[in-house]
Amino acid sequence: MRILLAEDDELLGSGIRAGLTQHGFQVDWVRDGIAAARELSTGAYQACVLDLGLPRQDGMDVLQQLRTRRVATPVLVLTARDAVSARIAGLDAGADDYLIKPVDLHELAARLRALVRRAHGQSANRLCAGTVELDSAAHQVWCEGVLVDLSQREYDLLHALLLNAGRVLNREQLEQHLYQWGNEINSNAVEVHIYHLRRKLGAGLIETVRGVGYRIARTPA
Predict the structure, then answer these.
(1) pLDDT per residue over 172-206, tens digit each?
(2) Which of 30, 32, 8, 2 is nearest to 80 (CA)?
(3) 189 within 8 A of 178, measured Cβ to Cβ
(4) Where are the domains of the chain?
(5) Do β-strands 47-50 and 75-79 pair in parallel, antiparallel, or remain unpaired?
(6) What is the DSSP track for 144-172?
(7) Minimal CA–CA distance to 2: which of 179, 186, 183?
(8) What span, in angstroms and rounded, lies between the C-alpha atoms of 83 and 62?
(9) What is the rounded CA–CA span in Å between residue 209 and residue 147?
């Protein structure tokens, strides 16, 4: 799950990035509002952690511009602005959640998971398709009730496909879920991960839509 962190404090930003990485997130970190607005416009992120007191462009302006352009990326505001009026203004401007610094990293990770779930119409941490079940809080996957050992990339790819069950995701979209800045991406990386997932979870789980991409069928309600 790829997250954008917009935070100008070096010590705090480093700690948040390290903590979220331990919780299984892929974290790209920017340190000013202009960079945050530029990155969010790409649509490459499942969520954003946004400080309001950013240099070059205030975080509130970034948020308002984002929603004016109808970019739906979930935004969690993380700020020292703790007045009730500031919280109301942030939520009314389009923030999906609002937390006051300092924050417990376990809570931050849980709130991000909840934002991403809601953005994809999911109500629970557990995502299912056939005999496969993924728990995003526990970061575990089962097939026919048996715990399956997946690499981080395999897990991230499966999670992206399950969140978007019924939709076809192309290679570029899947790469955006898997790789943060600075990662060299092999031309067949997605195909290799798909091959390993099929071997571990069953050949029929992930469908190839020729010339388009991959999908997991939506499980009937």
Answers:
(1) 888 887 776 656 667 788 999 999 999 999 999 99
(2) 8
(3) yes
(4) 2-119, 126-215
(5) parallel
(6) TTEEE---HHHHHHHHHHHHTTTS-B-HH
(7) 179
(8) 20
(9) 28
- Closest Cα to residue 175, out of 191, 197, 195? 191
Contact 198, 208 (CB under 8 A): no
Q: What is the pLDDT of residues 57-115, one digit of tens each?
A: 999 999 999 999 999 999 999 999 999 999 999 999 999 999 999 999 999 999 999 99
Contact 110, 100 (CB under 8 A): no
Helices (H), the chain: 10-22, 33-40, 59-68, 84-92, 105-119, 152-163, 171-178, 189-201
CATH top class, domain 126-215: mainly alpha
Tell me yes or no: is domain 2-119 CATH 3.40.50.2300.
yes
Alpha carbons 132 and 173: distance in angstroms, whole number: 22
The whole-model pTM stands at: 0.87
The domains spanning 2-119 and 126-215 adopt the same CATH topology: no
Instruction: Give the residues across from 141 on adjacent strands.
Output: 134, 148
